[in-house]
Amino acid sequence: MNSKSTNIILLVLSQAINLILLFLFTPYLVRALPQEEYGTYSQVLLIADFIGILVSIAVVQIAMMAFTKPNYPFEDSLKTLLIFSGVSALAGVLLMLLSSLFAGHLFNNPAITPLLILFAPFLLGLKLNNVLNQALIRLNQSKFILFLSVGTNLTKLLLAFIAVHYYHSLVGMMVVYSLEPLLSSLIQLWKLFKMGHLNGKFNRQIFREMAVLAFPLYIVELLGASYTYMSGFVISINLNEEAYAVYKNGSFEIPVIGTLYGTISTVFMGDMSMLIHDGNHLTLANIKRKIMTTTAVILFPVAIYFIFFSEEFILFYYSSKYAESIPVFMIFTTALLIRVQNYTDVLILLRKSKFVLISFIIFVLANLVLNLLLSKWYGVMGCALGTIVSVYLLAFIQVYFTVRQLGVRLSDYVDWKKLILIVFISSVFIAAVKIIFGFFNAPLWIILSSSISLTLPVLIILFIKLRFMDIEPMRVIFEKIPFFGKRFYQLLK
After folding, report:
1. Sign (positive/negative) of CA torsion 247, 248, 253, 254?
2. Cα 188 vs. chain centroid, distance in angstroms?
3. Torsion angle of the four alpha carbons 346, 288, 63, 44, in this order, in degrees rounded to the nearest 10
4. Model pTM greater than 0.90?
5. Residue-wise pLDDT tens for the chain (493 aa)?
6. Which residues contact 63 (CB under 8 A, 6 or more apart)?
7. Three-class HEC string of the chain
8. Cβ-count burial of 483 within 10 angstroms (0-12 exposed, 13-18 middle, 19+ buried)?
9. What is the CB-side half-sphere exposure of residue 178 using CA atoms within 13 A?
10. Which distant-in-sequence residues (6+ apart) come within 8 Å of 479 by Cβ?
């Protein structure tokens, strides 16, 4: 198995474990905290995310490109980007402190003020963490990232549980959440120091080049992030923290699945950059085409399953306390059907950021108008619907620009026939299972565990057998599984 396959598997595994830990912790938290406290906690995260985007300077995308450039020493790129992101992170901490002066009045929720002050250091650790993660990925240290991220995340959740369960302290939990990324950053710095990669120099040429690239990407990132914060602000200002808690719990993503495309894109960024440099646009389009179909084999059955079984899942996961989140969850889960690729990576590598900017301006205007209008008519559900419609619009516009700039046909870039077939087969099969389970009066956990065990493995194996997904790169993994690994590989092949 090549290094790229290994990195993808390790990074996905890292995300999977962390998201599953959070997935298991969230039901406890929504039950342990009163709805107004959970809404306050969610509003703090909303403001932190928003400020984090304001000071991001597109550092992750810049790091992905800087660390793959052969004309600059890796150590100099790392030192320059750490200073670059460190300054922006400190600006974020300052903005968090300033937001505590007026956010309580804006949201009509004074309880948010002290939590914003305590949570301010979170941004410093988060921004440094993003750069250090990209550096370690570039150095093929995905295994180290796996153990570090899982270890620090597990520690964070254990301490958060102690704070809430034994001390009934939302303040204590926020302090733990604030300090965890700082600890992770310090450990990653130690690792890079031991490897001898912290002896670089600040390079003005790298800084200037990155700054020129960063500005359009930053505007794009800022506009694109309205997907996560615009609805939150509309609900928090026009409604209340309880309504935002309902929206927040309905708008979450299924663990791992929603981030799968991003991990694959990060690992293949270097290869795509070389293909663009060589002018081999058709090969690049075919690679993206294969990545999208492969991702859809796993993602589409999961998304469609949770659309059909949304009521059972929300009632089991959050309890009837958040039954109002069911339609929001259904609407947001449909977004997974377009999460098969990174829609901006090729345009960024082609240095066609203006097209990304145009698409995001259209997206933001559509998102704002739809949120304001639909929230008046349908409340929280209207915000969810407005957000998802604008996200689909954004994806289609960016696909159009990408295909035009590569000079290829749409069919070279997207295998529409296979994607539609995966959706159709999955929908028919899962709908039939839903009807069958409707005749049983069983506990929710039995319905969910039985139906998901029946549908997802059958569908994914079927699509692999139909050659929608190439499992050859994973052959070594199957062969290492004792007793049945080789046989299972032959069966799938």
Report:
1. negative
2. 21
3. 100
4. no
5. 445 555 556 666 666 676 677 777 888 888 888 878 888 888 898 888 888 888 877 666 677 667 766 677 878 888 888 888 888 889 989 999 999 999 888 888 888 999 999 999 998 888 888 888 888 877 878 788 888 888 998 999 999 999 998 988 999 999 999 999 899 999 989 998 988 888 888 877 777 777 776 776 677 667 766 666 777 777 777 776 677 777 777 777 665 455 555 556 555 666 677 777 777 888 888 888 888 888 888 889 999 999 999 989 888 888 788 888 888 889 888 888 888 777 777 887 777 778 888 888 888 889 888 888 887 787 888 888 888 898 899 889 999 998 888 888 888 888 899 999 999 999 999 999 999 988 888 888 899 999 999 899 889 888 888 877 766 555 555 555 556 556 655 666 6
6. 81, 130, 131, 134, 135
7. CCHHHHHHHHHHHHHHHHHHHHHHHHHHHHHHCCHHHHHHHHHHHHHHHHHHHHCCCCHHHHHHHHCCCCCCCHHHHHHHHHHHHHHHHHHHHHHHHHHCCCHHHHCCCCCHHHHHHHHCHHHHHHHHHHHHHHHHHHCCCHHHHHHHHHHHHHHHHHHHHHHHHCCCCHHHHHHHHHHHHHHHHHHHHHHHHHCCCCCCCCCHHHHHHHHHHHHHHHHHHHHHCHHHHHHHHHHHHHCCHHHHHHHHHHCCCCCCHHHHHHHHHHHHHHHHHHHHHCCCHHHHHHHHHHHHHHHHHHHHHHHHHHHHCHHHHHHHHHCHHHHHHHHHHHHHHHHHHHCCCCCCHHHHHCCCHHHHHHHHHHHHHHHHHHHHHHHHHHCHHHHHHHHHHHHHHHHHHHHHHHHHHHCCCHHHHCCHHHHHHHHHHHHHHHHHHHHHHCCCCCCHHHHHHHHHHHHHHHHHHHHHHCCCCCCHHHHHHHHHCCCCHHHHHHHHC
8. exposed
9. 18
10. 485, 486, 489
Give the total residue count for the chain: 493
